[in-house]
Each structure stands twice: as C-alpha cells, then as structure tokens.
C-alpha cells in the first residue's frame, strides 16, 4: 500500500519482474513481431529482403541489435506517399477494427497518418495507466490536461491513461493561461499535464494573477512533448515554483502508446517499460553497435505488441544514455537518467565544441534573475559558426531593477549577465555571449518552445 | 441486417419495446430517482419539502407531471454558488468514483461545474452509441469530429458514442476550415460532426477550395449545439450541398448524456430515448399541465439512471412539440417532429406577432441566392419593436451579379430581396425588411451562430 492507501504498482508482477526473465518474454515478442512484419507487411518484407535479413536470424536480443535493419521517419513518409494513406506498414487490420486515426504535421502540408487498431488502442490505455500510476496518479486525483485534443496524439494519450487510472479527468486543452490557472485553483486540480515550457510560462502568469503556485493544489506535473522535463535545472525551477514533482514522459507519435516511459515517484530519471516498447542505445554512426550503460548514443525503439503500424527498430534521431542500476521505486526496468538529452541533428558545433540546446537551457535555468523565455541564435562569421543567447529577465527582477538608481540597475544587469555566461561556459566549455531582454520581449511559449534561430543559411 | 451487413439496432429489445411496457420501466426508474434524490441530495429534499411534495405521491407518470416541482438552471447555479463546487445535488458519489469534470460558461466567469461518476460516464457511452447507431454510424465509418474538446461537454459526448459504436474516430476539433475540409477529403471521412451553422459555412469554403462536397466522402452529418438541424429549409440546404443526411442530436449539458435524442435514419424528426431521459411537453405557464401531441409547449427532462447530479424535471426553457406516431425505422420511442423549435425566452413580439429566430432562418434558407450568414436586428421605434434582417448573398450570386450590367444587377438584387421578404412574411405573418449584404460582410460562423442583435436597451 502507498501513503494514500492504494496499491503501490499498477501491475506488480510485470513491473518488478526479474530482468532476465523479462528479457525472455521480450525476445519472444520480438520474434513474433519480426515474423508478423515480414509475412504481412510489405514495407518490412522489402526492407528486410534488400538488407538480406530474415527473422529466423534473431535468436537473441544481441542478434536483434546486430542484424535487424533500422527504419526512419523518412522511410515511413515515403511509404505513405507511395501507398496512401497508411503505407504498406499499416498492418493486417480491417477497417472495422480501427479505433483511431491521428496525424502529425508533415512537410508539404500532408500529415503522416497514424491508424490504431482497437486492440492496440485498448492496450495503450493500460500502459499509459501503468506509467501515470508509477508517477503517483491515483483515483482520488483531479487531472487537468492542457495538451491539445486534435490531430496530434498529444492530449489523447494523456487522457487515455488518466481515465484508465480512474482519476477525475478535467480535459481543458490549451485554453488561455489565466483561465487555465483560475480553473485549476477553483477546482483544486492535483495533477497538471503540460509541456515543461508551459509550466515555466505559467509561473510568470501566476505571479501576475497573484496566485501562489507553490501553495496551490497541484502536487504532480506530467510533462512531455519536448526534452526539458529531464533537464535538472529546469526540473528544479519548476519543482520549486510549483511545489510539485515533475514527471517526464512520452516518446514519439510513431511509437504510440507514447507513455511507455516516465519519471516514477523515485524521481531518478525516465523509466523505460521495455516489455512494451523495447529500447536500445546504439552508436550514432552504427545502429548495430550497442553501447554500454552511461555512453551517449542514438535511441532505437521497437513495438512489442502493436498489430497496426508496428515499429521495429525505429530510429527517431534522439540522443541519450541508459542505466540498469536498481531504482528505489522497486521497478526493475532500465532508465534514461536524463531522459532524452537532445536530437542528434540538433547538435551544434561551435568552435569545435559539441553544443546542444539542452546545455543552454540547463545553464540559464541555473542563473538567478532570468525568466522562462530564451532563444539561441547561430550565425556564420567568416568561416566559423558563432552562437549568442538572448534571455529574458524575470518579471520580479525587472520590477526590482526599476526601483534602483540607473547605476545600480546597470551593475545588477551586468552581474546577472556575467553569471549566465559563467553557467553557459560550465555547460558548454565555450564562451557564449548572453544578451538580456525585458520580460515579454520574446514570444510567449504556450506549447512547445522554438528556441534555436539559425541564420547560417542567410547572407551576412 | 442493414444494407451494409450490420445489425439494424444497437439494442433491439430496448429500442422496439412495446411503449406501454416501457412506461412501466420508466415509472420504476422515476420512483427510484425520486427516492434517491429525496433521501441523499439536500438540494432536492429542500425543494420538495418546500413544495409539500414527497416521492410516495408518485404512483403513475401522470402523477409525476402533476405533482413533482420543476427545477431550473438558475436554481442549480445558486446551489453551486452556495455550496461549491458541485452543489448539494452532486449526488452520493465518492471522489474516487468520479470519471469526469466538465463545465459550462457561466455569468461572472465562474462556470457551472459538471461532475460525472464512472458508472454514469460508462452508461453515457452506451446511449450515445445507441443514438449514433440509429443515425446510421457503423464500425466501417470514419467519424470526423469538429466540436471542441475542452471545458464543455461538446466533443466529448460525440466521441464517446463514436468510440463505442466502433467507428474509426478522427477527432480534429475546431481547426481551420480549409484544413478541416482538406483532411476530410484526403482521409475519406464518411461522417462529420459539427453545428448546422458550421456545415452551412463549410459549403462556401468548399466552393472557394474547388471541392465538391456533394460528391465528397461524407454520407452523414451529426449536427447539434443549436436548433438549425431540424429547421426543414436548413436541413434541405445542407443535405443538397453535402449530399449527406442530416441528423440532429443533443439536449443540454445538464442532461448529459446529451445524445438521448437523435434524427434516426428515417429522417422524420428527433427521436427521444425516453427510457434514458424521460421527456415531457407541458404548458409554458404551467409545468404540471401536460400537452397533447402536436401542441407547442415547454420541454421537461428527467434523468432515469444518473447517480451524479441527476436532473429531475429539469426545465431548460426550450419550446417544442411531440408526436407518438410510429416511425418507419421501427423504434417505438416518441419524436420531436421539428426538434427544438426555439427558446421560450427567444420569442420576440413584433407588432403583436410571436416571432422566433428559427422562423427567420427557415425563411432565408428557402430563398435562392443567399449565403449562410445572417443577423436579426431588433430595435424600438417609438413604442413599437421593429425587426430587420441582414442577409449575405452567396459567393456564387455575388460573382454572377458582377458579370451583369449595373441595371440588371440592381434588378436581380431587388428580386432576391423581394423573395426573401415574401418567405419571411410566410413564416412570421408580418413584413420584415431585408437588407442584402456582400459575402463576407458578417463575421464567419465557425461554432454556434449568434444571430440576434437586440438594440432595444440602447438610446435611439
């Protein structure tokens, strides 16, 4: 029993299973999915025949990594373009057995379409419930959801889990921020689901409304949709201002059910439900070379249970590292200690250093006096790429500066700027100039933040 | 079996039951609900004690109408104000057993909160499925939903039914109109759910995009949220332009599950599932005086199954009439031949005539050459109220006029205007001046239309 009188796990046998025993089950499911895909899904048959791969070659998890070709978003888009609407990987699912159709924004305005069978949809609800239960959601909670309910899976995945847990669901979607907060306080919502950027943004909105988030009703934040939910300084800032634990969850739309990973109540990184979506970390230049715990590489996902549009060794282009150390929550799954660290193609090379937007975010969040919004500008100067950061002061800091003499205010700004640059140096090993902006100078982030402005393609 | 090989009814025994036998079941449920409310819900206890009513007094359906006091929206709002958040009519439901919290827009910014138990929520899915099945929705259909998924019940009720039917659900919510149509055609959505105003609005958008709705994929339109879905001329216009049947459904948020009524495939008015929500038509000045079939009066609703916030003799202020004539679809429920005709307090008295906005809508929809948008302006001139109507020309008509000589165009406009005024005279018995506007002159309706502009309170 937990502190509130509920059982501790959603599915104790599954979540605390001996990892070696779990690997046996995972291998069985991998073999099943490989044969299903090879026999019934032309997309995989073509891909595997071209690579000279056959499912019979996989007799171990090591074989799986060593021998099975990866697939990418680009391959899925091309297959849907050539075989509309759902591609030849749509799976052996009759129209009558389809529960959901969703989509993602696509280049040229045509979305990638997702088509989920009833069986897969039902199963997704259960694993999303397992994830949210692991984050502490219980039937007594009121779960307010700010993710949109529209074309993307966004809010739909969150609500499925909260409904299955048995929480009271309050699904507002992305309404105006002041209304979002007023209703949250009025209703006493104990759980709030949003992007980390939006949680940061609401800190400022709450101050303007005179609402004290830290003494407010919310006890846990289920965040996702972007990486910030595992950036330590971001998590610390949100946790302190909200007086609530931060739980990072969610992989990608291709991998629906996307909550096969979540920060549990142990708050020690993102746990991976590998018996639902098997997850590997491999070398960024060689998808058949597994990496040991702690080494950063590319993440690769495999659906173990989906019939409709199953992904086998899907390469989303995300970078991170794994650990198999035991978790104090008692679950025996591996974890991503820092969640998704960044996108492989987001890496910027600045004067020889590898810099990720998440490094910049971590540095700024560790600097007192700054607000939620910032941008990173990258430009070419001569033969070198250079980076500058524009960061807003927090509303309180701006208000404080307004009470000072001009000289004192200037000194205080210089000190904040110096501290920000010191934090960025610590994160990136290079000097990154920081420009301070007034609160409100940058566009407000109400959904996912767009941080990087890349001017390298433009004439200078 | 129906033409597509599915069973004809969702629940044949229930839907085709002998009405006398159904009334026995209804009376049992009414007695159960009255006792439950009187014993466990202080709101009802106070109200009934004040009126000198006791549940034991109801031994027949006639007793129910004659003896049970009605309740109104105002009473619910006051009870929630005095007993936040959910009022003393919230019902005997533990926090752990609450599935959903939704709200309605309220005066002074505080919504009325709706709180639905898990049992009631599950049951709502089933009756919504029964309604949508009666309108012809089947598992092979793709159901695109444009109602919002947010604070209001709107889209949530529609999606519950479509999911339970087993259709492929494509829940876009209120996205941009051109995107709504592009995705509809791309995906081949066979069912579209929207307000009637929005269906009309999309006719013009489709023309601009060069999409032919009539030969498009949509075969049925599930409409609601406002009365137009049963205004014959509106239905005719939508049916012709879309090449699809129009099914009017939905009562009020208080009465969730709101799809306890729907235009079935027989297309002969709105059928009432009276064994889910018992429905009476009574005299507008005496809620205890039942009216016979065909006579217009006030509608009164009663939840027969809800534990959470059950409504017993709820008076929404809507006006209509009923029929018990058999329906060709074989279901044995009564019907509202014209759906909800209007709101009792929407009635305008113009030179002694009772005029409803629905009369104006019906007249304009019968006039060739007009577009979707119109407004009704009411002003005081001396001691009399006067009404004028502003109606947009359709884009095709405007384009046609632009090709004519000035004299010919003027003559054509005069003819359209005269025809509109003739149609309004036929509907209202009085002369209503019509002013023709260019397409786009009035704000576009993308959700519920706001038609009446009342200037009587202003200085003239």
UniProtKB/TrEMBL annotation, chains A, B:
Residue span(s) of domain AMP-dependent ligase C-terminal: 352-456
The record, for Pfam families, names:
AMP-binding, AMP-binding_C_2
Species source reads: freshwater metagenome
Annotated ranges, domain AMP-dependent synthetase/ligase: 78-301
This chain's protein is named Unannotated protein
* InterPro entries assigned to the protein according to its UniProt record, in alphabetical order: AMP-bd_C_sf, AMP-dep_Lig_C, AMP-dep_synth/lig_dom, ANL_N_sf
């Amino acid at each position: 029993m937990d502190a509130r009188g509920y059982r501790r796990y959603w599915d104790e046998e599954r979540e605390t299973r001996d990892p070696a025993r779990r690997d046996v089950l995972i291998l069985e499911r991998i073999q099943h999915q490989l044969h299903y895909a090879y026999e019934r899904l032309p997309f995989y048959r073509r891909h595997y025949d071209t690579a000279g791969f056959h499912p019979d070659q996989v007799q171990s998890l090591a074989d799986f990594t060593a021998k099975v070709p990866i697939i990418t978003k680009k391959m899925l888009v091309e297959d849907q373009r050539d075989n509309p609407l759902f591609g030849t990987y749509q799976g052996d699912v009759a129209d009558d057995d389809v529960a959901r159709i969703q989509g993602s924004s696509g280049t040229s305005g045509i979305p990638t379409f997702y088509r989920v069978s009833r069986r897969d949809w039902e199963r997704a609800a259960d694993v999303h419930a397992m994830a949210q239960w692991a984050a502490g959601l219980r039937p007594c909670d009121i779960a307010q959801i700010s993710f949109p309910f529209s074309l993307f899976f966004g809010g739909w995945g969150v609500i499925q889990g909260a409904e299955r847990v048995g929480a009271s669901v309050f699904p507002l979607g992305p309404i105006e921020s002041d209304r979002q907060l007023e209703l949250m306080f009025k209703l006493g919502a104990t759980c709030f689901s949003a992007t980390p950027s939006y949680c940061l943004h609401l800190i400022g909105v709450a101050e303007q409304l005179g609402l004290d988030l830290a003494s407010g009703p919310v006890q846990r934040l289920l965040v996702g949709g972007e990486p910030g939910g595992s950036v330590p300084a971001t998590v610390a800032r949100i946790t302190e201002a909200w007086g609530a634990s931060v739980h990072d969850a969610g992989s990608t739309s291709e991998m629906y059910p996307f909550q096969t990973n979540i920060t549990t109540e142990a708050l020690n990184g993102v746990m991976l439900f590998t018996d639902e979506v098997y997850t590997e970390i491999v070398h960024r230049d060689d998808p058949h070379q597994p990496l040991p715990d702690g080494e950063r590489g590319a993440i690769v996902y495999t659906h173990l249970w989906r019939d409709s549009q199953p992904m086998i060794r899907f390469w989303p282009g995300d970078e991170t590292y794994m650990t198999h150390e035991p978790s104090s929550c008692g679950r025996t799954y591996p974890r991503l200690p820092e969640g998704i660290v960044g996108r492989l193609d987001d890496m910027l090379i600045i004067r020889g250093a590898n810099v990720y937007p998440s490094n910049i975010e971590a540095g700024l969040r560790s600097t007192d006096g700054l607000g939620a919004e910032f941008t990173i500008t990258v430009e070419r100067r001569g033969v070198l790429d250079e980076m500058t950061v524009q960061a807003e002061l927090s509303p309180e800091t701006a208000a404080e500066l307004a009470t000072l003499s001009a000289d004192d205010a200037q000194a205080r700004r210089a000190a904040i700027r110096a501290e920000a640059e010191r934090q960025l140096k610590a994160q990136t090993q290079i000097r990154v100039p920081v420009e301070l902006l007034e609160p409100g100078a940058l566009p407000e982030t109400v959904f996912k933040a767009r941080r990087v402005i890349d001017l390298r393609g433009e004439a200078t």
